Amino acid sequence: QVQLVESGGGLAQAGGFLRLSCAASGAILGGNVMAWYRQSPGKQRELVARIPYMGTATYATSVRGRFTISRDNGNSRNTIYLQMNNLIPEDTAVYYCHLAQDMGNYWGQGTQVTVSS
Question: How far apart are CA 3 and CA 69, in angstroms?
C-alpha cells in the first residue's frame, strides 16, 4: 500500500504565494510519476502539474509560469512540492497529490487552497 500526505494549503491573497508538500511512503516503485491535481466546487478534477521519477515536469496552461513542481533530490525522491506564485482567485480549490506506478494509482486526502481577491 502507498500513503500520500499533503501539507501546506491555506489562505492567501491574490498575488501571494503558497507551497504545498506531498510525502509518499509505503510500497513505492522507481519510475513512478507524481502529480498535483485540483478540484473546485462543481468542476471536474484537473491536472495541475506532473513530474516523473526522472525527467521533465509538465504543467497545465493555466498555471505555467506561476507554479513550479519539484521532487526531493534525496535517494528516495518520494516527496514532491508545488510552489505556487502570483496566485489568483481561480486557483482556489482542493489540491490532491497523486502517484502512478505499475502497481496502481494513489491519491492523497487533499489540502484546501483559498485565494482571496
Answer: 19
Rounded Cα–Cα distance for residues 83 and 113 (Å): 12
Please give the backbone phi and psi of residue 13, each rounded to the nearest 5 degrees, phi first: -90, 155
Sign of dihedral through CA atoms 68, 92, 34, 75?
positive
| 59 SS3 class | strand
Q: Is the pLDDT of residue 55 over 70?
A: yes
- How far is it, in rounded angstroms, from Cα 96 to Cα 24? 13
**93-101/104-107 β-pairing:** antiparallel
Considering only CA atoms, give the Rg of the chain.
14
Q: pLDDT, tens digit, for every residue of 64-100?
A: 999 999 998 676 679 999 999 999 999 999 999 999 9
> What cell numbers appear for 41 in the block?
466546487
Distance in angstroms (rounded) separating the CA atoms of residues 67 and 99: 19
The residue with greater pLDDT, 37 or 1, is: 37
Q: What's the mean per-residue pLDDT of the chain?
A: 94
Where does 9-97 have alpha helices with state H?
none
